[in-house]
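Action item from last week, closing it out:
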Amino acid sequence: MSEARRIRHQLKISYHGKAWHGPALKEVLEGVTAATAAARPIEDAHSIWQIVRHVAAWQTEAARVLEGKSYESLAGDADWPPVIDTSETAWTGALGELENAQKALTDATANLTDEQLDQKVPGRDFTLYILLTGVVHHNLYHAGQIAILKKAASAAIF
């Protein structure tokens, strides 16, 4: 299997699951309600909902780079999109946004070659390999945060 295919596989399992380390992003989000997603059980920490929107933003950015867009280091609301509506409908929408971002990114890697992985991201000092493995790490880092927040929220009284 080529390295590009391995990375695509890692992107998929970091989101959908069956990873050796434990639950992936989508798995850890199973059963999370809008109330739990919006909760702030740990002072000064982001909510699950904020993390979901943040991960979707970075997956979208990586997919756009693969499609030829110049890389942008997200900041402010682009990095941490605000959560305004905390209804169940809005939560379902946020999960859909994450699912769509994941699909766009894995679709964008479908025809990626190993040679392309070694190309620098335009205007940056890192390669597509670093960008994509970074997204895998980012997914798993935030899956761990969500797992902790989910436990903390279930222990808190709303």
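Closing note: The domain at 3-155 is CATH 1.20.120.450 (Four Helix Bundle (Hemerythrin (Met), subunit A)).
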